[in-house]
Specification:
Length: 156
């Protein structure tokens, strides 16, 4: 006779790092479900540029802004500075369907994501490395795609 717990005994153990990365992606997805995502504090010298996003928050950016922020975050974590610089200097975000007004939310989301992940690296005393952080971005992207609302006019 099988018990309802048998599947747990038969399941393969999940390495702790994989579990941690999955949980981090869930927390980040939850934070990103709000606009703007939560911040501990705004350094007016460094983050004063982003103050308009908090004083009178504009509407939530489109999913394309989040997608591009994930792209830029990956480049920053991988230290692909030439790609990042080319993208921003040549306003490649416009080629990707973003509006000029999306630049500020794009930069904010990119910085927010990178700071969250680098903070995770610090909190784990370097055990979570940049490749792990990129895995979190992959998991986060997949999670965000699952919760996207259907296009308007589409009835499910």
């Amino acid at each position: 006779m099988s018990s309802r717990w048998d599947h747990l005994f038969e399941a393969k153990p999940v390495p702790l790092i994989d579990h941690l990365l999955e949980e981090v992606s869930k927390l980040l997805a939850k934070d990103l479900s709000r606009w703007p995502p939560p911040v501990q504090e705004i350094d007016l010298d460094m983050g004063g540029t982003f103050a308009p996003l908090f004083l009178e928050p504009p509407p939530r950016p489109s999913q394309a802004v989040y997608d591009e922020a994930l792209r830029l975050s990956r480049w920053e974590l991988a230290r692909e500075f030439d790609a990042y610089d080319d993208y921003m200097r040549n306003k490649r975000y416009l080629e990707r369907g973003l509006a000029p007004t999306d630049r500020l939310p794009l930069l904010f989301l990119t910085r927010w994501l990178v700071e969250q992940l680098l903070g995770l690296g610090e909190a784990t005393e370097g055990r979570v490395k940049r490749p792990h952080m990129s895995q979190v971005l992959d998991k986060l992207e997949a999670r965000m795609r699952l919760v996207q609302p259907p296009p308007s006019g589409l009835i499910l």
